[in-house]
């Protein structure tokens, strides 16, 4: 009897030794996502969490496809996500057990950092957006700072209007981010003295004036923090490197 | 046990089968490789074409411009018969009817008798990797199979020709080595057979005979065999010599008397009935030499006497150490009067020797011959007995003399 009690105690101690059973689903086969996954795994183990494949208390999702798939399941565990461009598009902020970290900073934050870096005056920012993306863009671009310039096929359609502004913000619009379109837009802005900035870190290679750089270490820490904590805000800002 | 010939035949059959299998597999492998290369070539050409056309469509999505560039590509690439790009619900094809005919083909490369159709999806390309790639259409390219096959067959044929050349070259090398080995084996067999013949004198064969071996290893084996046989022959000779020779005097011993004289020589004497003299020599006062000057002096006297006997006698005379200081000499075809002359020569030579004992060494002898002392040839023992009696007589008469009667 005593032996059984001791065994049960050891078993319970062993279970309690793990803070949480965490599943990780990475649906993005790109290098930054893989790097982030590795960092998260390492941090989870450091924080005494157990990484499992099934029966998890918390699920960390990397990438939109993983989130979309998870939304169909409706599990009773906590879901933490990142690498989702527009969480509001899927209504994730309204989901009870969903918590996320943005993969690009809100445009206003990027704009403020951009102004601070170059000590510029606040002025309206032009944002060329394809017509299909305008409703989503409105959610992220407050009228106070941003003016949306819609186009149908190519950002070239907005060039005449762009000349009225000094700053141009590159929104993560698939049509705008087509290689040809982006290169054409950046070239036009450079030729006409317009300053171009964006919150997508990997656009730095296209010679933009300012790009927010994601701090992946902080991002990983935030994800692990969300495993044990439940903040008030459902979507946490993207952690960027300091200027 | 398998014979050497059947072994060679078996090896030859294995070689031929190996060559056949090599060519078969080489052919199959080459065909497979050629097909793989063809597929990759088609795939890569199609990818480059798709990239070009897609780029034009993205920069300036003008139907005429795109189809004109497609037409130019078809004219410049002989194997290409046509292509189609469907992107953003827009369709660009050259020739125009291509889409209707091939748009339902599955993804990948498909073959018909005369055509190769390549069909693959086209994805949107974004400046940022945070945006998911989406399929935005497809690309279709049509190739003339006969043209592609012509190139492929030429390549396969060339590869096979090279393989066959290597096989032939390799086989020739192997066959020539085999023939050398076979020739050397036969030569070695003949060589050993020659050495095994009973009448063969075991002497080292001529250099030419050994040089005839083509392979160094066979030559070494032949040389080793010859060396061993010669060594055995030498050992045999020396054993034979030791068996019939007295090591001190260098004269024949009693073995020779029993084995050669009695068994071979006496029957010959009996048949031919030639005159024969037997002389028994005994050193005078030999015991006193041994006693006073030691056995080494006695041995020295005996050794020198043996040398003198050998030097003085004819080649046909047979000297034998008969006892301690007794020497028996057989004189074939000689009577005792002739034989005693030889004995006298020996005596005078011995007396000239200075053995450091203060006096010359002498010997006495008794001689007996056929036909004067024995009437029948072959009575060798009687002759020796008579000679012994006469030796005794010579000793009695005062030593250092020869008694003939």
The residue fraction in helices of chain A comes out at 25-40%
> Could you describe the largest sheet of chain A, including whether it forms a barrel?
6 strands, parallel
Instruction: Specify the number of helices of chain B.
Output: 11
Number of domains of chain A: 2
Terminal-residue CA separation of chain B: 74 Å
Strand content of chain A: 15-25%
Number of helices of chain A: 8
Described by its quaternary structure, the protein is heterodimer
Q: How many β-strand runs of chain B?
A: 10
The CATH superfamily of the largest domain in chain B is known as: Reverse transcriptase/Diguanylate cyclase domain
Mean pLDDT of chain A: 89
Question: What is the H/E order of chain B?
Answer: HHEEHEEEHHHHEHHEEHEHE
How would you characterize this protein structure?
The complex is a heterodimer of chains A (243) and B (405). Chain A is an alpha/beta fold and 243 residues long. Chain A has 2 domains: 2-103 and 215-236, Response regulator (Rossmann fold); 107-211, Response regulator (Rossmann fold, 3-Layer(aba) Sandwich), CATH 3.40.50. Chain A contains 8 helices and 11 strands. Chain A has helices at residues 2-16, 31-46, 64-73, 107-118, 134-140, 159-162, 179-191, 216-228, and strands at residues 21-26, 50-51, 58-62, 78-82, 98-101, 125-130, 146-151, 167-170, 195-198, 210-211, 235-236. In chain A, the strands form 2 sheets. A 6-stranded parallel sheet of chain A has the order 2-1-3-4-5-11, with helices on both faces. Chain A has a 5-stranded parallel sheet with strand order 7-6-8-9-10, sandwiched between helices. In chain A, helix 2 packs across helix 8 (216-228). The longest helix of chain A is centred in the N-terminal third of the chain and has 16 residues, at 31-46. The N and C termini of chain A lie far apart (64 Å). Residues 9-17 of chain A have low confidence and may be disordered. Chain B is α+β, with helices and mostly antiparallel strands and 405 residues long. Chain B has 3 domains: 4-125 and 133-152, Beta-Lactamase, CATH 3.30.450; 201-242; 247-403, Alpha-Beta Plaits (2-Layer Sandwich). Chain B is built from 11 helices and 10 strands. In chain B, the strands form 2 sheets. In chain B, strands 2-1-5-4-3 form a 5-stranded antiparallel sheet. In chain B, strands 7-8-6-9-10 form a 5-stranded mixed sheet. Chain B is rod-shaped. Chain B starts with a helix and ends with a strand. Classes of the chains: A alpha/beta (243), B alpha+beta (405). Chain A binds chain B through residues 28, 30-32, 63-65, 83, 85, 103-104, 153, 172, 174, 177-180, 182-183, 200, 202-203, 206, and chain B through 55, 58-59, 61, 124-132, 134.
């Amino acid at each position: 009897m005593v032996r059984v009690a001791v065994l049960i105690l050891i078993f319970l101690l062993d279970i309690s030794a793990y803070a949480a059973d965490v599943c990780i689903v990475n649906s993005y086969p790109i290098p930054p996502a893989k790097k982030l996954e590795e960092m998260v795994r390492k941090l989870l183990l450091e924080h005494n969490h157990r990484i499992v494949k099934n029966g998890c208390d918390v699920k960390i999702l990397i990438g939109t496809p993983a989130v979309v798939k998870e939304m169909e399941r409706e599990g009773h565990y906590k879901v933490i996500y990142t690498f989702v461009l527009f969480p509001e598009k899927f209504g994730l902020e309204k989901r009870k057990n969903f918590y996320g970290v943005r993969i690009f900073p809100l445009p206003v934050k990027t704009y403020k950092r951009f102004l601070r870096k170059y000590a510029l005056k606040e002025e309206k920012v032009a944002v060329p957006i394809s017509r299909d993306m305008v409703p989503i863009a409105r959610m992220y671009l407050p009228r106070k700072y941003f003016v949306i310039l819609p186009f149908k096929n190519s950002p070239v359609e907005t060039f005449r209007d762009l000349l009225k502004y000094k700053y141009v913000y590159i929104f993560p619009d698939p049509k705008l981010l087509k290689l040809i379109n982006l290169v054409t837009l950046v070239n036009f802005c450079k030729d006409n003295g317009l300053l171009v900035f964006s919150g997508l870190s990997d656009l730095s290679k296209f010679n933009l004036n300012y790009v927010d750089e994601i701090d992946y270490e902080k991002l990983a820490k935030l994800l692990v923090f969300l495993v044990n904590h439940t903040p008030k805000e459902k979507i946490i800002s993207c952690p960027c490197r300091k200027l | 046990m398998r014979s050497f010939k059947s072994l060679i035949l078996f090896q030859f059959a294995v070689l031929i089968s190996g060559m056949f299998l090599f060519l078969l597999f080489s052919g199959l492998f080459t065909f497979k490789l050629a097909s793989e290369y063809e597929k990759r070539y088609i795939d890569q050409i199609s990818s480059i074409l798709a990239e070009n056309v897609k780029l034009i469509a993205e920069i300036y999505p003008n139907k005429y411009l795109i189809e004109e560039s497609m037409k130019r590509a078809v004219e410049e690439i002989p194997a290409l018969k046509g292509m189609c790009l469907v992107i953003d619900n827009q369709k660009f094809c050259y020739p125009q009817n291509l889409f209707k005919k091939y748009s339902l083909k599955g993804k990948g490369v498909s073959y018909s008798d005369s055509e190769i159709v390549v069909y693959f999806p086209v994805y949107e390309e974004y400046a940022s990797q945070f945006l998911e790639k989406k399929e935005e259409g497809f690309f279709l390219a049509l190739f003339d199979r006969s043209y592609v096959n012509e190139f492929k067959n030429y390549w396969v044929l060339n590869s096979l020709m090279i393989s066959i050349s290597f096989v032939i070259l390799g086989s020739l090398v192997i066959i020539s080595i085999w023939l050398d080995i076979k020739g050397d084996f036969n030569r070695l067999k003949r060589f050993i057979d020659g050495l095994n013949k009973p009448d063969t004198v075991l002497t080292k064969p001529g250099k030419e005979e050994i040089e005839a071996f083509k392979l160094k290893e066979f030559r070494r084996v032949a040389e080793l065999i010859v060396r061993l046989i010669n060594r055995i022959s030498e050992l045999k000779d020396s054993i034979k010599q030791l068996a019939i020779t007295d090591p001190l005097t260098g004269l024949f011993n009693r073995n020779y008397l029993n084995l050669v004289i009695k068994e071979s020589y006496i029957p010959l004497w009996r048949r031919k009935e030639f005159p024969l003299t037997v002389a028994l020599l005994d050193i005078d006062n030999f015991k006193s030499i041994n006693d006073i000057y030691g056995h080494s002096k006695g041995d020295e006297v005996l050794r020198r006497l043996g040398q003198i006997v050998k030097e003085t006698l004819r080649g046909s005379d047979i000297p034998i150490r008969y006892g301690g200081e007794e020497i028996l000499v057989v004189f074939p075809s000689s009577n005792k009067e002739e034989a005693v002359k030889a004995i006298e020569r020996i005596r005078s030579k011995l007396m000239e020797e200075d053995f450091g004992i203060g006096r010359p060494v002498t010997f006495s002898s008794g001689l007996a011959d056929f036909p004067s002392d024995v009437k029948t040839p072959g009575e060798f023992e009687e002759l020796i007995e008579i000679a012994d009696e006469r030796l005794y007589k010579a000793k009695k008469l005062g030593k250092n003399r020869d008694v003939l009667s």
